[in-house]
Amino acid sequence: MIAATGDAPVDRNHGKRTMGAKIEDSNIERKAKINLYRNNRDYRDNGKVKVISLNGNVLLAGEVPNSAMKQEASDIVGDVRHVLSVHNELAVQEPTSLFSRFTDTWITGKAKTRLLFSPNTPGRRTKIVTRRGVVYVMGLLTHAETDAVVQRLQKVYGAQKIIKIIEYID
Prior knowledge:
The chain is an alpha/beta fold.
């Protein structure tokens, strides 16, 4: 209401997500997991699938036993309401070991810390996920911010590769 009566142009802050968008992303993640598990018990029993949503862009990371399940996962998640795109990074292999998952968690924590304590990177506007040493970066960023984030993440010990899933706001 205040913006409508002011002199400045009315526009939203493209770098910030609304509370509604955050809730919708949580709903997408929950619905996607439920739909995967209901469709095929192997997603729960023989695979490790992580579903992450940011502004309707969904990342599937983890492991599945066969390529048919990998394709099926994309189709199932793509049918969830409000999903704009699906980035299927599932590996066709046995689930990773507990030690490997612990290492991935450690890498993610280290990466998030580097971004949060750097004045040049928008750590609060990025999501970091690590699977099998691959660091996935999701966010609403400018090209310059993305370059700064990648530069910081390249210094994280143990990160083998960085994959950007960015919605550019410039």
